[in-house]
Each structure stands twice: as C-alpha cells, then as structure tokens.
C-alpha cells in the first residue's frame, strides 16, 4: 500500500528509482511519480495516475539526469486518483520535494495554519502539507533542523522521504512512524525504500528505521536521530534473499511461482526455531492470537491446536481486537503477519501493553519484530503476489512444528509436490467454474480454516463471490443459496470429520450443487461431480497441507481464465499499512 524509493550516489537515480518502483508495484497503487535533482537548485518532477510501466515510459522517467532522487507509488487515501494528488509533492517554491506513505491526522489544522501564512496548495492530499511545513520551518533554520521540527509537528502515521533542490549537499531526509522505511547501504551509494526487495539489486545490507526515527542519507553514509533528537545507532541486517527470489523466474505470474515454490521453502520454514515461542506459550494461562486475512486463517488453526492441547486460546481479527479483548499480564499475545507491517495487527499488539508478545512473520526487520519479545520467522523468501500462498503454508508449517516436531513433518515437501502434480486437472476444473457467479467451500474441524483460506483466495483473485462454512452451518441459512449448478468445494479427507461432512455434501447435492471434492474416500468421489485425489494412506495430520495446494491452484487458474492478473487483484494491496 503506497511505496517509496529514494537514491543518492553516483548512479543514474532515475534508472534506479524506476526499477525500484516496478519492484514496489505489488504493494498496490493507483498513481506513480519521480523527482530527481538535476543540479543545484533544480528538480525535475514527473507523475501521473496509472501503472509504472505505462507512466514511466510515457513521461520518460529514465531520461532525467542526476544522482539524487525519489519515487513513489500512491494508493489514494486523501483526495481522488489524479495527477495533482500523485506524489512527489512540492512546497510553494518547488524547493522541497517529498513522498509520503501513511495518513497525517492533523493535516487539516496544519493546512489552515499554513494557508493563513500564504502557502498555496496544488493537491487535496494530506502529504503536500508536509512539504509546505518544511518550507515554513526552513525560513528560520537550516534544512536538517527544519525537517526535524516539521516531523515533530505531525500526528498520524508516516514514512517520508524528502530532498531540497537548493540543499547544500545531495541528501535525502527520512522519517518513519507506523509505516515502514528501510535504509539500504551500498558502496558509495545509499538507498531507502518501503521494503527490502525494492533495493535487493543494489545491496544486501539494510538498516530498518524504528518508530519515530529520523535519518539523513548522503552517498557517504547515514545519520539516524531517535525520537528525542539524539543521534542513534540502529541494527544493521544482512539478508540472504537474492534478486532472483523476488522475480518471476519464467513463470507467467508470481502467484504460480510462489505456489510452486512451496515445495522448496517448506523445509526452510520447518528449520525455523520455535522453542522460544513454545516456552512463552507454556508460561501463560491464555493465548490471544491476532492477525488479519490469510494470517488470521493460520491463527484459527493455531487456536484449534492450542485448545486441543488444553490451553485457553482464541484467534481474533486484529482490527477488532481492541474492541473485544481485555488482555492482562496472564495473556500472551501472539501475532501472525506475513509482512510484519499490517497496521491493524501492529495496533492490536500495541493495545496489549504490558503483555508478552510473540510475532510470526516472514519479513526480517519488519515493524512487528521490534514489538515482540520473541519472533518466529517463516523463512519463505519474498512473497510478491498480493495473494498470500506460500507464506500461508509456511505459517501452518511453523505452527505445526510447535505441536508435532519437525520429524513428523518431514514428508511435507514431497506431499506438496504430489498435490502440485494435479495442476493440469485443476486447470480443467477451473474451466468448468470460471463462468459461475457464486461458490461455496465446506469442511469440518481442522479443515475449516483451510476452507476459509481457499474461499478467500478464490474470491480475491477471481472476483467470484465465495463463502466458506463449517459444513454443519449450511442448513442454518446458506442452503437457500445452493441451487442448480452452484459449485460447492468440499474438503473431505478421510478423517474423523468425514461422516458428518458426507451428510453436508449430500444435502448440497440434493439441491443440484456442482460438487468438487478434494478427498481420498471412494464414496465421496462417487457422490461428487468431480474430485481431486489426496494421496492414499497419507498421514492424517498433514491433510491441511495437502488440501490448501489444489485450492490455491484453483483460484489461480480461474483468475487467469477470467482475464484477471492474479498478482494484482483490484482494490487490494500486499501490505496493508493503514487501519
Ligand atoms: O502481511 P499480513 O499477513 O499481516 O497481511 C494480512 C492480510 O492483509 C493478508 O493476509 C491478505 O489477506 C492476503 N494477502 C490475502 O491473500
């Protein structure tokens, strides 16, 4: 959701920034822009609504000369999607230029104050106010001080990268609060961006900023100032992800690549250290699990496993947690977030003040890692497709490792490979359902979170309305929607849930539903219009892993058949950094 990239060094800033903007696309956006300092006192700004490829080509981004610049992908919050509201934004004189992610809550008051001092605004955004605020403060003090002073006047969330046309040096000014921003340290060049993959081509050394940090970058290095204005040192991290991992590698879409990648990454996920997390869980009376979307589905699975082991545990939708829960010192907060930057999740964690906290995340250096007492990494490599796929499986893997140990899960990679081999069959099934308007996913017990996730994946990339239920719930209302030809996807492995689920399959079938089952049971296969087979004799604890893979492929192929780009479904962002 919005992306920023900045560069200072001896390279061609416009080229590096345009390349970074392409890598930030997956976060979700509607407009794009670039600003490059072309010489002392001179800035060139080009921006418009639209996609990076289209706009950067039409406006010839890479033709701009200069070694200092910044770029932005905007996901509208304040003001319509239009050229004027696209970033970067400038002050009145065109000297200060900046890009901002987040929401400035007191922008209206600041704007009125600045307007009364004569400032003229060119957009409806909250972000533009920051450029004018810096301009105002710079009337009486040097730019660094003016920048710091301006940041202190902001309320809300922000990741800001700014520069000055007539600054005495080539510098980038950065600030972050509740919105991610990372420094990338290269040789004789410095970068900054909303996330690491945008900078991987240039460096593997990163310095994530902490909440309230302000930083100044020049080609020779960086200085960080903490919330209280004192100079601060922040941990430098090295990541072993390479550029290749964040590219499509011959696949038509990231989503397909990432579904396929699961067979490799699952072993990395299983290598993750869960012992610290388990100790904390053991030491608490109650576990509140906080997450959103796909990660929430993994959270439901965790709550089932914890409840099954006798623990008091509940999974909460992160955005609702503060309205529902009353965590105390006996409560352990366990947050699951692929990106580690989801605003709803971070807010819920902060709400649990005084509680011990565990974070399960994929992103080293993400904000969530700074809030938690113990972090479990997914080790799934960068996930670029908006739809979470391999990271859901990785979440399940680390969760299952806590309960069953690594040995019990050593067949996982092979199992995923076996399920991936159904790809051709699933593509043919997708052809049968791509023209439908509704779909329903049913399961029971531990398979229910997988049905939820299968349904979410399906609706988000196909735009077909879809719902998921524990099979027993159908007769309490939803059955009225099951009519001739409506697809019902039944997760029907031969476990203790099958006898009852079989009843639900028959109920749906009797109303004319098109039954697609994923099963290892011959009777279910006979009752179904079409089936995807689970491997015979497989270990029942691994059923959720075997079920999710065909559901991901079904969503993917149906999406492509409907002419949708599954990597970038409409209205959605990979990293949801606003509440
Ligand atoms: O990064 P997070 O896991 O915190 O993201 C939470 C949700 O936005 C995310 O899981 C979303 O539901 C998926 N991308 C959907 O595929």
Architecture overview:
The chain has 579 residues and is α/β, with parallel strands linked by helices. It has two domains: 3-247, Glutamine Phosphoribosylpyrophosphate, subunit 1, domain 1, CATH 3.60.20.10; 410-579, Rossmann fold, CATH 3.40.50.10490. It contains 18 helices and 25 strands. A hairpin with a 4-residue loop joins strand 9 and strand 10 (190-193). The longest helix is centred in the last third of the chain and has 19 residues, at 543-561. The protein is globular and about 80 Å long. The relative contact order is 0.09. The model has no long low-confidence stretch (mean pLDDT 94). The protein binds 5-amino-5-deoxy-1-O-phosphono-D-mannitol. The site of 5-amino-5-deoxy-1-O-phosphono-D-mannitol has 14 residues, from helix 8.
Q: Can you tell me the overall shape?
A: globular
Strand order of the largest sheet: 3-2-4-1-10-9-11-15
Cα-atom Rg, whole angstroms? 25 Å
Largest sheet: 8 strands, antiparallel
CATH architecture of the largest domain: 4-Layer Sandwich
Low-confidence stretches: none
Instruction: State the name of the first-level CATH class of the largest domain.
Output: Alpha Beta
Name of the CATH superfamily of the largest domain: Aminohydrolase, N-terminal nucleophile (Ntn) domain
Using the coordinates shown, work out and report the CATH topology of the largest domain. Answer: Glutamine Phosphoribosylpyrophosphate, subunit 1, domain 1
Question: How many domains in all?
Answer: 2
């Amino acid at each position: 959701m919005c992306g920023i990239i900045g560069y200072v060094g001896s390279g061609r800033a416009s080229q590096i920034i345009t390349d970074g903007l392409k890598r930030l696309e997956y976060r979700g956006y509607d407009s794009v822009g670039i600003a490059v300092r072309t010489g002392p006192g001179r800035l060139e700004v080009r921006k418009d609504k639209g996609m990076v490829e289209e706009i950067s080509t039409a406006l010839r981004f890479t033709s701009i000369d200069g070694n200092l610049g910044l770029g932005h992908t905007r996901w509208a919050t304040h003001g319509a999607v239009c050229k004027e509201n696209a970033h970067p934004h400038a002050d009145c004189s065109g000297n200060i230029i900046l890009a901002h992610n987040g929401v400035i809550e007191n922008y209206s008051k600041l704007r009125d104050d600045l307007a009364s001092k004569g400032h003229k605004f060119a957009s409806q955004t909250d972000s533009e106010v920051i450029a004018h605020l810096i301009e105002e403060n710079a009337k009486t003090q040097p730019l660094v001080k003016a920048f710091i002073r301006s940041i202190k006047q902001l309320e809300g969330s922000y990741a800001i990268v700014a520069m000055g046309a007539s600054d005495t040096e080539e510098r980038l000014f950065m600030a972050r609060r509740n919105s991610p921003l990372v420094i990338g340290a290269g040789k004789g060049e410095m970068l900054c961006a909303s996330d690491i993959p945008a900078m991987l081509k240039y460096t593997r050394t990163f310095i994530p900023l902490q909440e309230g940090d302000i930083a100044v970058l020049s080609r020779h290095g960086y200085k960080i100032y903490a919330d209280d204005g004192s100079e601060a040192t922040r941990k430098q991290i090295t990541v072993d992800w390479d550029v290749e991992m964040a590219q499509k590698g011959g696949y038509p879409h990231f989503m397909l690549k990432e579904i396929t990648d699961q067979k490799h990454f699952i072993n990395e996920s299983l290598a993750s250290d869960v012992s610290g997390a388990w100790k904390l869980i053991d030491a608490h009376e109650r576990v509140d699990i906080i997450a959103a979307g796909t990660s929430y589905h993994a959270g439901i699975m965790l709550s089932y496993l914890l409840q099954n082991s006798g623990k008091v545990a509940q999974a909460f939708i992160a955005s609702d947690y503060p309205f529902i829960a009353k965590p105390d010192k006996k409560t352990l907060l366990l947050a699951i977030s692929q990106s580690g930057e989801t605003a709803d999740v971070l807010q819920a964690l902060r709400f649990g003040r005084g509680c011990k906290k565990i974070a399960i995340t994929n992103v080293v250096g993400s904000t969530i890692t700074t809030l938690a007492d113990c972090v479990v990494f997914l080790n799934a490599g960068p996930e670029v497709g908006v739809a979470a796929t391999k990271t859901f499986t990785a979440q399940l893997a680390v969760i299952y490792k806590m309960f069953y140990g690594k040995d019990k899960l050593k067949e996982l990679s092979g199992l995923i490979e076996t399920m991936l081999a159904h790809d051709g069959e699933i593509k043919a099934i997708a052809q049968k359902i791509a023209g439908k308007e509704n779909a329903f996913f049913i399961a029971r017990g531990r398979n229910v979170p997988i049905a939820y996730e299968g349904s979410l994946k399906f609706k988000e990339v196909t735009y077909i309305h879809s719902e998921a239920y524990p099979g027993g719930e159908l007769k309490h209302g939803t059955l009225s929607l099951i009519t001739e030809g409506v697809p019902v996807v039944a997760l029907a492995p031969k476990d203790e849930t099958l006898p009852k689920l079989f009843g639900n399959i028959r109920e749906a079938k009797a109303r004319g539903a098109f039954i697609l089952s994923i099963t290892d049971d011959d009777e279910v296969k006979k009752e179904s219009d079409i089936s995807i087979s689970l491997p015979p004799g497989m270990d029942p604890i691994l059923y959720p892993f075997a079920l999710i893979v065909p559901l991901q492929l079904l969503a993917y192929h149906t999406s492509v058949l409907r002419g949708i780009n599954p990597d970038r479904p409409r209205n959605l962002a990979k990293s949801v950094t606003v509440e």
